[in-house]
């Protein structure tokens, strides 16, 4: 049995991972995010799907290092050993050129996508000491492999995730902790709604005329990566919908 901690489990890819892992009797789930009411709804979906799946959920804002340390160290005793960390919490805010970008948006992206991922990893790795199957999955992005117009700071944060993913693989090698980056292209979640500060029409237009990836598509790939034999690690995977060639080149006339 492996205990999996998923950050940002209240929506999108994180919630889909929880539901996918709940189908597999080898996993028990630690779910966190800021919106606890969403986590409660997710827990009841998991109960319907697999009543035997053990779930513990809690509120966590990954941007606050003290909160991350205190909350993780105060987990109930039976949840203190972690095997798998899915560093998923993240967001994009704004899509503006650098000279007019909103500094609050920049801070939120850097604090969540880079510093939050670091804080959680810093305090979870010591909780993996007893694990024989320790694995960290970092959710990067196509935006961590290339830069697209007006993506500036979001792209920079995901390039940082790409670097940290490689750095973790080096630093954690002697501990036998697997480290995998999953880098999605366009996935239809709340991502665009958050990027455009709740402008749902603009968010919808991102997915017009295309079949994007779903959270479930990414979750299935993560479960595949987690279930490889002990000697096999998927280091880095870039996953795009068939209609997407780069961060911004998308065929909207030939949706599959
Ligand atoms: N959708 C896409 O096209 C792509 C997404 N990604 C990445 O996938 C990851 C998941 O995003 P996605 O599912 O699409 O988007 P969603 O907006 O649907 O989900 C984002 C999740 O992150 C959580 N989160 C955000 N800020 C914080 C915080 N400060 N502390 C804790 N949790 C936080 C949210 O929970 P809450 O608000 O409740 O705290 C939510 O559960 C992100 O890292 C994103 O960058 C990568 C490439 C493409
Ligand atoms: C370009 C993408 O596919 C990604 N969702 C992003 O907006 O960075």
TrEMBL record:
InterPro entries: NAD(P)-bd_dom_sf, Sc_DH/Rdtase_CS, SDR_fam. Keywords: Oxidoreductase. GO terms for molecular function: oxidoreductase activity, acting on the CH-OH group of donors, NAD or NADP as acceptor. It comes from the Bacteria. The keyword Hydrolase does not apply. Coiled coil: none annotated. Signal peptide: none annotated. Belongs to the short-chain dehydrogenases/reductases (SDR) family. This is SDR family NAD(P)-dependent oxidoreductase. It comes from Sphingobacterium zhuxiongii. The lineage of its organism: Bacteria, Pseudomonadati, Bacteroidota, Sphingobacteriia, Sphingobacteriales.
């Amino acid at each position: 049995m492996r205990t999996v901690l998923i950050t940002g489990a209240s929506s999108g890819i994180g919630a889909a991972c929880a539901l996918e892992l709940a189908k597999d009797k080898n996993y028990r789930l630690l779910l966190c995010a800021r919106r606890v009411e969403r986590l409660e709804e997710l827990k009841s979906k998991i109960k319907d799907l697999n009543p035997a799946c053990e779930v513990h959920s809690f509120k966590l804002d990954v941007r606050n290092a003290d909160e991350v340390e205190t909350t993780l160290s105060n987990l109930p005793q039976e949840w203190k050993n972690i095997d798998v960390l899915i560093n998923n919490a993240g967001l994009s805010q704004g899509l503006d050129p650098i000279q007019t970008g909103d500094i609050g948006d920049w801070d939120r992206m850097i604090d969540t996508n880079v510093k939050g991922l670091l804080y959680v990893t810093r305090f979870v790795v010591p909780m993996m000491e007893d694990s024989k199957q320790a694995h960290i999955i970092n959710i990067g992005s196509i935006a961590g492999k290339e830069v697209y117009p007006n993506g500036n700071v979001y792209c920079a944060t995901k390039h940082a995730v790409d670097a940290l993913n490689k750095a973790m693989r080096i630093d954690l090698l002697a501990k036998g902790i697997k480290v995998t980056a999953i880098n999605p292209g366009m996935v239809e979640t709340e991502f665009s709604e958050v990027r455009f500060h709740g402008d749902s029409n603009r968010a919808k237009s991102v997915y017009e005329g295309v079949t994007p990836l779903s959270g479930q598509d990414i979750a299935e790939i993560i479960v595949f990566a987690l279930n490889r034999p002990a000697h096999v690690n998927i280091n880095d995977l870039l996953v795009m919908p068939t209609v997407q060639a780069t961060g911004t080149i998308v065929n909207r006339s030939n949706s599959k």
